[in-house]
């Protein structure tokens, strides 16, 4: 994963897009803004993704400093994922993407098919 970080683009906008690229990363962050989650909770919130892909995306987010992974010394062991300070700085960006998605759906006359933007979760 360190190699992936070393090879990030030098153009800031391209770097941001590369760090957030991946089908599930923005959605994972969106759900983690509501509070720490265990892997099983995230899996329930993202039923269309495999556990392997979810773990891979979480590891990449962790490697980029957007998500923290905390292991609790319990039996059985418990692991929780949470958003870091750097990850929280992406809230305005995700809020803007959510609002843009609603405007796009409205223009395509598909607003009735859209899920509600949980903007409170992103506040």
Structural class: mainly alpha
Helix proportion of residues, in percent? 40-55%
| Uncertain residue ranges | none
Counting structural domains, the number is: 2
Q: Give the mean pLDDT.
A: 89
Profile the largest sheet.
3 strands, antiparallel
The total of helices stands at 8
How many E strands? 3
Specify the CATH architecture of the largest domain. Orthogonal Bundle
Spatial order of the strands forming the largest sheet: 1-3-2
Concise summary:
The chain has 123 residues and is mainly α. 54% of the residues lie in helices and 11% in strands.
Describe the structure.
By secondary structure, the protein is mainly alpha-helical. It folds into 2 domains: 2-86, Winged helix-like DNA-binding domain superfamily/Winged helix DNA-binding domain (Arc Repressor Mutant, subunit A, Orthogonal Bundle); 90-123, no CATH class. It is built from 8 helices and 3 strands. The protein starts with a helix and ends with a helix. The model has no long low-confidence stretch (mean pLDDT 89).
């Amino acid at each position: 994963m360190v190699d992936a970080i070393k090879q990030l683009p030098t153009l800031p906008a391209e770097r941001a897009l590369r760090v957030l690229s991946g089908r599930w990363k923005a959605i994972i962050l969106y759900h983690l803004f509501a509070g720490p989650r265990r892997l099983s909770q995230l899996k329930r919130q993202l039923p269309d993704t495999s556990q392997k892909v979810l773990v891979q995306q979480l590891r990449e987010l962790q490697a980029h400093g957007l998500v923290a992974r905390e292991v609790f010394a319990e039996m059985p062991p418990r692991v929780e994922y949470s958003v870091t300070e750097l990850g929280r700085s992406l809230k305005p960006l995700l809020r803007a993407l959510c609002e843009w998605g609603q405007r796009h759906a409205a223009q395509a006359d598909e607003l009735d098919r859209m899920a509600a933007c949980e903007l409170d979760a992103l506040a």
